[in-house]
Amino acid sequence: MASKLVSCNLCKKEISSSATVCPNCGEKNPTKRPQKVGWLGKICGLIIWGAVAASILLGFFGTPNRTSTQATSETSALTEEQIYNQSCSKDWRKCKSNADIVNLNTSVNSAMKTACKRAAEKNSKFEIDWNWLAFGTFYENDSDIKTGEILIQDNDSKYGNMFGGKVKVTTKCLFNLKTMTVEQVSAE
Predict the structure, then answer these.
(1) Strand, helix or coil for residue 4
(2) Long-range contacts of 32-40 (CB under 8 A, 24+ apart)
(3) Among candidates 70, 140, 67, 46, which has minimal Cα distance to 102?
(4) Which phi and psi angles does 164 have, rounded to 5°?
(5) pTM of the predicted model as reported, rounded to 2 decimal places
(6) What is the DSSP letter of 125?
(7) Measured in whole angstroms, how far is the alpha carbon of residue 130 from the centre of its chain?
(8) Which residue ranges run through the membrane (predicted)?
(9) What is the pLDDT of residues 107-152, one digit of tens each?
(10) pLDDT value of position 5
(11) Considering only CA atoms, which of 150, 118, 120, 113 is closest in space to residue 135?
(12) What is the 3-state secondary structure (H, E, C) of 35-103?
């Protein structure tokens, strides 16, 4: 019994309807017809395209217009805060409090914590286990800006002892912001 001839899906040449590979182009399953998209698939496609079109249009046209005085006052208020944050993050002397030094000036904060940990480790005879947020406590005031010194503290450090045990100790560190060095470190 002869099989009927159909066209290959890829190269469109006539082949046997029972062929598993097209002898002309090598297409696997050359007689299998692609599935048609049903009505549910079409609706989903329309919803997706509608969402894409809406986001593009909103990107071009944005939110409703505000009056120019509203936009200007909001921009200037944000700008003053941004200017302060940027200046404090670059120079600790421009910060209003030690809280701003710790929270905004990441380079000083990082240098301070690293130097304090090293000084404490240098003074200790045994190993110290630091928590993940070492020296995360400070005493909030504005005199640190005037004196150039900031006191930070770690409440969860564990110092080794001569018996091989660990003792939870509070470590205090007085850091000189002007010289970027540790003035004093103590364990209580």
Answers:
(1) coil
(2) 33/9, 34/9
(3) 140
(4) 85, 5
(5) 0.56
(6) S
(7) 24
(8) 39-61
(9) 888 888 899 989 999 998 888 988 877 888 877 776 677 888 888 8
(10) 85
(11) 113
(12) CCCCHHHHHHHHHHHHHHHHHHHHHHHCCCCCCHHHHHHHHHHHHHHHHHHHHHHHCHHHCCCHHHHHH
pLDDT at 20 over 60: yes
Whole-angstrom distance, CA of residue 181 vs CA of residue 175:
6
| Residue whose token pair is 């079109």 | 53
> Residue 63's pLDDT is what?
54
Residues in the chain: 188
Structure tokens at 186: 């103590």
* Residue type at 175 in one-letter notation: F
Q: How far apart are CA 43 and CA 91, in angstroms?
A: 58
Element (H, E) at 112: helix 106-123
Number of Cβ within a 10 Å radius of residue 10: 13
Residue that is written with structure tokens 């005493």 in the block: 139
Q: Are strands 149-160 and 137-138 parallel, antiparallel or unpaired?
A: antiparallel
Asked if the model's pLDDT at residue 104 lies above 80, the reply is yes
- Alpha-carbon distance of 59 to 39, in angstroms, equals 30
Q: Mean pLDDT over all residues of the chain?
A: 81
